[in-house]
Every structure is written in C-alpha cells, then in structure tokens.
Design brief:
Number of domains: 1
Order of helices and strands: EHEHEEHHEHEEHEH
Oligomer: single chain
CATH class: Alpha Beta
CATH topology: Rossmann fold
Radius of gyration: 16 Å
Structural class: alpha/beta
CATH superfamily: Flavodoxin domain
CATH architecture: 3-Layer(aba) Sandwich
Distance between the termini: 30 Å
Number of helices: 7
Bound molecules: flavin mononucleotide
Number of strands: 8
Shape: globular
Length: 193
C-alpha cells in the first residue's frame, strides 16, 4: 500500500470529478489516496506525506490552469522528489489525430516551461462543457466555438470524459507501487480511445 495525493485545479468542476474518481480508484486498489484542491490550506502537508503525486488541471483559452502553474513552480522540489503524474483535462482530448496531439503537447510544454518539475507521466482526459457554470462572455465564446465545430451543446451541458479510460489509467497508477515507498517504472500513457 502506498499513499497518493491528487492535487487538482478546476474552474467548472470537471477536473475535480476526475481527481476524485482517480482517488476512488486508487483506494479501491487498497492504497491511501486523497483528492485535494491546490488552494487548500493543508495541501503542502499532503504533498510531504505522499509517496506519489498526481497534479490535475484543466485548460482554458489554450493554457493549463494558471494557479496550478504557480503551484507546480513553487512546489517543484516536493513534486520532483516523488513519482509524479500530470493529468490535463481539456476538450481537445476528445478529438483524435495528430493535430489534437500537437495542440495538447503544446499545453503541456507551456505549462512545464515555468517549473523545474518533470512529471513521469502525462495523461490527457477529455473534459465537459457546462454552460450553466460559465459567465456570460464565456458562454457566448463557447457557443461561437461549438457552432463553428458543428457541436450542439444542450443547456444542461455535455460530458466527454471517458470514465473507463480514466479507470484504466488509475489502475496503471495503482500498480506503480507494489510495496510502500518502493518506486517502480512509471506507467505508460494509456491508449487513446
Ligand atoms: C471558456 C473556455 C475555454 C476553453 N478553452 C479550451 C481550450 O483552449 N482548449 C481545450 O482543449 N479545451 C478548452 N476548454 C474546455 C475545458 O478544458 C473543459 O471544459 C474542461 O472540462 C474544464 O475543466 P474544469 O471544469 O475542471 O475547469 C475551454 C472551456 C471553456 C469554458
């Protein structure tokens, strides 16, 4: 059994759901695991207590959560001391093909350019669009972008997250530590579906 912490930065709530599901799956595999907001008062203590760390953040307007970038920069020593993974939640992850891959790699490169931390694993997870949780301007913007892409977004929103694929990623992470404190090879990125 090992101890994982999943630190998340979420604007409309989907990355929080993703982080909580990851923690649930890790607990189901008999590890200790908590999902915690990067702004929580006890986040630094949680990092120090963990054997492995997952950072999860969403993308808006072409960039990963700004607050999480600051966090990754400030906490680089603690992150670099342990096996670690970065989970990127975005809509581009719902699209197949090399163009989407290149776009997402660009998000990661820009994010990592402001920290010395180098995650062992990067995983891309398709997010959700929930117009009711957006401000007026963001709602207008999403309406324009989705119309351009031929995507109909109902008022209650639309979820692209592949929970099965996320479960497979969590199981790969859970096999990361066969014994407490003994790091093994980091899991490979799970195949895109
Ligand atoms: C205003 C806005 C801008 C967005 N910009 C991007 C983007 O540039 N690239 C992308 O792949 N997804 C983009 N998304 C999709 C979000 O990454 C997706 O909605 C994600 O689930 C948000 O996660 P959160 O609820 O944890 O913040 C955008 C969403 C909104 C609302």
């Amino acid at each position: 059994m090992a101890s994982y912490v999943v630190v998340y930065a979420s604007s409309e709530g989907q990355t929080r759901l993703v982080a909580e599901r990851l923690a649930d799956e890790l607990r189901a595999a008999e590890h200790d695991a908590d999902a915690i907001d990067f702004r929580a008062a006890d986040v630094h203590a949680a990092l120090e207590a963990a054997d492995a760390i997952v950072l999860a953040g969403s993308v808006h307007m072409g960039r990963l959560h700004r607050g999480l970038a600051g966090f990754a920069s400030r906490c680089a020593p603690a992150l670099s001391d342990r096996p670690s993974a970065l989970v990127v939640v975005c809509l581009t992850a719902s699209k197949p093909g090399p163009e989407a891959e290149a776009t997402m790699n660009g998000y990661v490169d820009a994010f990592l350019s402001s920290t010395t931390w180098k995650p062992d694993v990067v995983e891309f997870v398709a997010g959700a669009l929930r117009p009711s949780r957006l401000g007026f301007l963001q709602r207008k913007l999403i309406a324009i972008v989705s119309r351009k892409e031929g995507l109909a977004v109902p008022p209650e929103g639309i979820e692209f997250t592949d929970w099965e694929a996320l479960g497979r990623f969590a199981r790969a992470l859970s096999a990361w530590f066969p014994r407490v404190g003994v790091a093994t090879r980091a899991p490979q990125r799970s195949p895109r579906v």
